[in-house]
């Protein structure tokens, strides 16, 4: 079965430190991978996606993600976290015309 | 501004009632989706539609119904057959269901509570 796993329910990081939110996937064929962010009581906002090409993808608000085919991972990263980055982050993978979402990881950035 | 509008933001349903959640988009997207979000479970697909007058069941369609009479509109009805409807409902659209790698645009969500 196709799936997306986000192994951490919550990630805590101090402002100014680098952050990583982990994601692994299991989909058939070439994966199309996405990261979305959700602020409280709001819809999801698209951050970035991997289709093909360079394994390091840059997106909105200074976020980037690294695609690793051998580890079937697509971790979200940011060199220097901001308090305003605190939100719920979803990894998603496209498989068979359907998008499969992970359970989400709550990022808490402490000032 | 282009986007997706969901209404109402908050909705309360009595036992045995049907309620309808509105979703309108002005992005000229072909594909539209309804997701249900529960804490710790991510998003689960309820229904999706690629064209007017055509829609497909997602993973958790039981107790829900939809219509797609206009390209811009994709309302979701939560029927009395849905035994646990309390959740946050998200409507989304994308350019084309069959366009690989097309990101989704989401509405602000409707929080439905059974009272």
What can you tell me about this protein's structure?
The complex is a heterodimer of chains A (111) and B (115). By secondary structure, chain A is an all-beta fold. In chain A, 0% of the residues lie in helices and 55% in strands. Chain A is built from no helices and twelve strands. Chain A has strands at 3-5, 10-14, 19-21, 24-26, 32-38, 44-50, 56-58, 64-68, 73-78, 87-95, 98-101, 105-110. In chain A, the strands form three sheets. In chain A, strands 2, 5, 6, 10, 11 and 12 form a six-stranded mixed beta sheet that branches. In chain A, strands 3-9-8-7 form a four-stranded antiparallel beta sheet, with no helix packed on it. Chain A is globular, with a radius of gyration of 13 Å. The N and C termini of chain A lie far apart (41 Å). Chain B is mainly beta and 115 residues long. Chain B has strands at 4-7, 10-13, 19-25, 31-37, 43-51, 54-57, 64-66, 76-78, 87-94, 105-106, 110-114. In chain B, strands 2, 4, 5, 6, 9, 10 and 11 form a seven-stranded mixed beta sheet that branches. In chain B, a hairpin with a 5-residue loop joins strand 4 (31-37) and strand 5. The interface between A and B is medium-sized, with 22 and 26 residues.
């Amino acid at each position: 079965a196709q799936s997306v796993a986000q192994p951490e329910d919550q990630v805590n990081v101090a402002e100014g430190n680098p952050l990583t939110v982990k994601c692994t996937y299991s989909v058939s064929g070439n994966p199309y991978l996405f990261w979305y962010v959700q602020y409280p009581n709001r819809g999801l906002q698209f951050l970035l996606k991997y289709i093909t090409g360079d394994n390091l993808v840059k997106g909105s608000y200074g976020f980037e993600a690294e695609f690793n085919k051998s580890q079937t991972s697509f971790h979200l990263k940011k060199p220097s976290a901001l308090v305003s980055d605190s939100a719920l982050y979803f990894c998603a993978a496209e498989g068979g015309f359907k998008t499969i979402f992970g359970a989400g990881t709550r990022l808490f950035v402490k000032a | 501004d282009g986007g997706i509008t969901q209404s109402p933001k908050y909705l309360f349903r009595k036992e045995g009632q049907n309620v309808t959640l509105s979703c309108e988009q002005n992005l000229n997207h072909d594909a539209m989706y309804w997701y249900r979000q529960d804490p710790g479970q991510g998003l689960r697909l309820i229904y999706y539609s690629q064209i007017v007058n055509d829609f497909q069941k997602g993973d958790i369609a039981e107790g829900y119904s939809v219509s797609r009479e206009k390209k811009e509109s994709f309302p979701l009805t939560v029927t009395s057959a849905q035994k646990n409807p309390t959740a946050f409902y998200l409507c989304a659209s994308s350019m084309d269901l069959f366009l690989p790698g097309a990101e989704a645009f989401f509405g602000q969500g409707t929080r439905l509570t059974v009272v």
